[in-house]
Amino acid sequence: MSPPTEHHLVIARLREEIRRIERSPARREGWIASGLAEVDAVLPGGGFPKGALSELTGGPASGKTAVALALFASLGPGDLAAYVDGRGELYPPAAAALGVDLARLLVVRPPSARGVAPGAGARGAGGPGGPVEPDRRRGPSPEVRAGLWAAEALLASGAFAAVAIDLPIPRALPGADAAARRLQAAAERGGAVGLWLAPGKGLRVPAALRIELVVEGGRVVARRALGGAAAGGGGSHRVA
Asked: What structural domains and CATH numbers belong to the chain?
């Protein structure tokens, strides 16, 4: 028998961690506020819906990660959060400075993102932190499959109140649409707030709602579009 690869070890550790903290999944209802009044003001119910995916779109430095971390910081004292860090750019001390309890945060990095210093990834296609180029004959690479599998397992586990997913996946990647639908179903099963940090022109997910984040005049503007990626625009609010 061949020795286990790093990919298989990562999956085994993730399964063990989920088994350790998993509680019986229960259908959650309602919303969780992000703690950012300007963002919550454009959300139905004043927060992100439980048991559903919400998509945060925007270019680099548009505030996607900041909104996700603000949501984590606003969770209750018994709630857990998870972040699938496909770019390897999440900096835990910065998350802690924003009020995130690191003892209740699980960070999962697919093999290609492990060991990448925060902010050090190349932005171009194929570089660390950049979009993963598709193999049109074989479909998703092992790294992409690992990230998608981790996201699906976390969302469906029922152990996490909120799961943020930052995977730089091209829209044209074979099989990506089916994977996106599985993520939606996993969020419904587990009852978590799922946040998809959309990678620019990359993969879109069938989200319950979409928040567009852009920078105007040096400030972040949040816009809501109901019904996910196919919906029209909503109002806008500035986020300091």
From this structure: 6-19+56-115+128-201 (3.40.50.300)
